[in-house]
Amino acid sequence: MKRLVILGGGESGVGTAILGKKKGYDVFVSDFGKIKSNYIEVLGLNKIEWEDEKHTEDLILNADLVMKSPGIPDKAPIVKKLLEKGIPVISEIEFAYQYTNAITIGITGSNGKTTTTLLTHHLLKQGGLNVGLAGNIGKSFAWQVAEDKVDVYVLELSSFQLDGIVTFKPHIAVITNISPDHLDRYNYDYGLYIESKFRITMNQTEEDYLIYDNEDEAISFWLKNNKTKAKKLPFSLTKKLEEGSYLEDKTIINITNNKQINMPTTNLSLDGMHNVKNAMAATTVAQLMNIRKQTIRESLSNFQGVEHRLEKVLKIENVQYINDSKATNVNATFFALESMETPTIWIVGGVDKGNDYTELMPLVNEKVKAIICLGVDNKKIIDSFNNIVDVMVETSSMEQAVKVAQKIAEKGETVLLSPACASFDLFENYEDRGNKFKSAVRGL
């Protein structure tokens, strides 16, 4: 019996354990942190051995195969030891992929991947397909494969998940955009991060498709210097394309496999030019999957959006409060600030992942009235914007940040939480940060 060791007892770890057990592996789950009680219960019900708050080497280094959760870096001592012994270390995506015959659609990118994934899932579901949602979002891919009830999977894939693939090949791959993010995991080498994103297409053949942003510098540079066998379907806001999606007279024009669909951007349920791009990517997938044009149009106009992504919370005394906690890098915050139409009080800060704030300067100059720092160490933000905005306040809790914002904001203005940083200094994750923002706003 082959031994499968799983590092990390979260959603992807427990899902992989269930699938591994079903496929006849001797399974062991090890988590260096604490495993949540609901997951412990599931492991118990499935008679799967586990440990937490430690890694017992004797129980791990005897593995035939190891699935590592995406949050664990390759630099972790236990991972180094496994690699030195030549034991294969893969991601949940790679493990589960071997056991499904479903069509897979993989979506990656520095920003927009969650919105594009949910929008694509919405289009396919409204089109009547039996479709699952997994990867970096929702219920674990492996868990769903173990239950095996769907024909198509839409997978949101992070660079960490792609780092652990060997044979995984999505039939349709989407790269929304690439901008510096998570550089702390890539030795501060942007090139390594870009390579990591493009692993999504490395196993694709002539029968597969790659959908991507035609204007993105990093993507264009990679495609100029590297080959993919997949059929390329770009999208663009500035250039007329023979195939793919482009914008003309405020209308999205999509031409895929000789089928054309037009959609006025005014009918989209989501605001902002970045969402026009997300809609283009999702439409191209829907066209490839033969969803009816009428269904595509209706679905794009009734899609509800993503929690913690430019989410309008409340208007209080004519001040709009917006939760964009999901903006964990500079590029995401760029889109948020770009879509602001009134003077903005900007709440920013957290764990810096090697951020360069230069690209935000013109937008901050034009739109931001005051900056509220919310992080343990705000020095870099203060140094970057000190000369651009008149009001700068440091705070150490969400409640305090929101109260200060309320004092500064005047009628007709906006308070925007768009941190541009990871959340792990003061919060569990970006959802926790966004929820605390929403409850602080509701408490005003």
UniProtKB/TrEMBL annotation:
It catalyses: UDP-N-acetyl-alpha-D-muramoyl-L-alanine + D-glutamate + ATP = UDP-N-acetyl-alpha-D-muramoyl-L-alanyl-D-glutamate + ADP + phosphate + H(+). Residues 308-421 form the Mur ligase C-terminal domain. The gene is murD. It comes from Flavobacterium ponti. Residues 107-286 form the Mur ligase central domain. Keywords: ATP-binding, Cell cycle, Cell division, Cell shape, Cell wall biogenesis/degradation, Cytoplasm, Ligase, Nucleotide-binding, Peptidoglycan synthesis. Cell wall formation. Catalyzes the addition of glutamate to the nucleotide precursor UDP-N-acetylmuramoyl-L-alanine (UMA). One of its GO terms (molecular function) is UDP-N-acetylmuramoylalanine-D-glutamate ligase activity. Pathway: Cell wall biogenesis; peptidoglycan biosynthesis. This is UDP-N-acetylmuramoylalanine--D-glutamate ligase. The keyword ATP-binding applies. Belongs to the MurCDEF family. It is found in: Cytoplasm. InterPro entries: Mur-like_cat_sf (IPR036565), Mur_ligase_C (IPR004101), Mur_ligase_C_dom_sf (IPR036615), Mur_ligase_cen (IPR013221), MurD (IPR005762). Its EC number is 6.3.2.9. It comes from the Bacteria. It holds the Pfam family Mur_ligase_C. ATP binds at G109, S110, N111, G112, K113, T114, T115. Gene3D superfamilies: Mur ligase, C-terminal domain, Mur-like, catalytic domain, NAD(P)-binding Rossmann-like Domain.
